[in-house]
TrEMBL record:
Residues 153-231 form the Signal transduction histidine kinase internal region domain. SUPFAM superfamilies: ATPase domain of HSP90 chaperone/DNA topoisomerase II/histidine kinase. GO terms for cellular component: membrane. Pfam families: His_kinase. This is Histidine kinase.
Length: 340
């Protein structure tokens, strides 16, 4: 914003330089008819008076009357300031042309008043338009900054919701293994430790390497495989994904997590989960398909993961993604397409 205010000062300075330059050009004949002091005095008086009126309008009349919708008071203030300008400028012109330079164009009072009135309104309107344009632009910058901050805050909030949700599921898995006194429990702890490191350090960045995100997802699926054993058929395929690509962290987890929580975890036998991830022509395609009970014994709880996923996609990949969810009897599928 400080850069903008510097630019704002430069714009106003450039405006008054142009106005002064115009009057210098317009009054250059005074160099021949009078002398340099009268030439400079004529231009200085006009520019200073215009600056005074502009200051009164922009810093007093505008915020005190116009913004508060006191249009009558604003119009009266402008009229009084213009009349004061006309009296001072016209008297000076009458003196200059009547006694110093001699009879020239606009040498009588009526012509001087007429010229000064409309020229003053012109410059005042131009300055007001410039002021309103700059204020509108600064307001747009402020709105944009607030919007970005709001989006960032919402993304952080959504990310904070994802982490506890994931931990809740994994700790339940680990608890089940420890009850069975499984020899696989230490391996679960190591994988969970690796995943926690990713969540604590890498997932706080706006973007992470897609390789790390997929490794995180593979660890998650490996942990779930340990829990389900031979009770479920789980396939995980990754094809044509080059290294060096980046993606928003923890963006793919809700699709897989939802498949386990609302699909395999609720089906006692013949459960399946297929995960296919591919990258072609700058587009990442993630397809997750799982079986689910035909008639759930109880209403599904949660739904935080997919709801948050939709919001994050809307914030981070607006116009560059497509999420399709298909709920069929005994089967649920999700297709996510993202332009990276």
């Amino acid at each position: 914003m400080s850069r903008f205010f510097n630019k704002k000062t430069l714009i106003y300075t450039a405006y008054w330089i142009l106005v002064t330059g115009f009057f210098l050009y317009e009054k250059k004949y005074l160099l021949y008819k009078a002398n340099m002091p009268y030439f400079l005095a004529c231009v200085s008086v006009r520019v200073i008076l215009l600056m005074v009126i502009a200051y009164l309008n922009l810093h007093i009349f505008l915020p005190k009357y116009l913004i508060k919708k006191r249009y009558g008071s604003y119009a009266a203030s402008i009229l009084l300031s213009v009349m004061a300008y006309l009296v001072i400028q016209s008297l000076y012109d009458w003196y200059l042309y009547g006694y110093i330079v001699g009879p020239l164009y606009r040498s009588n009072m009526y012509e001087s008043l007429y010229y000064n009135f409309f020229s003053t309104l012109w410059y005042l309107g131009l300055m007001l338009s410039l002021k309103l344009s700059i204020d509108w632009y600064s307001q747009q910058l402020l709105i944009q900054r607030i919007t970005v901050e709001k989006l960032n805050a919402e993304v952080d909030f959504l990310r904070a919701q994802v982490n506890p949700h994931f931990l809740f599921n994994i700790l339940n898995n680990l608890y089940a293994l420890t009850l069975k006194k499984s020899e696989q429990a230490p391996d679960v702890v190591l994988k969970l430790s690796s995943m926690m490191e990713y969540m604590l350090y890498d997932s706080n960045d706006d973007k992470v390497l897609l390789d790390k995100e997929l490794e995180y997802l593979q660890n998650y699926v490996a942990l779930e495989r340990l829990r389900f054993g031979n009770e479920a058929v789980i396939t995980f395929n990754i094809a044509n994904v080059p290294s060096g690509l980046t993606i928003a962290p923890l963006l793919l987890l809700p699709l897989v997590e939802n498949a386990f929580k609302h699909g395999l975890s609720r089906q006692t036998a013949n459960s399946e989960l297929n995960i296919d991830i591919a990258f072609n022509d700058g587009v990442l395609t993630v397809k997750v398909e799982n079986t689910r009970p035909l008639a759930p014994a109880e209403p599904l709880k949660g739904g935080i993961g997919l709801s948050n996923l939709r919001k994050r996609l809307a914030l981070l990949y607006r116009g560059k993604h497509d999420l399709q969810l298909k709920d069929e009897p005994g089967r649920f599928s999700a297709l996510l397409i993202i332009e990276l």
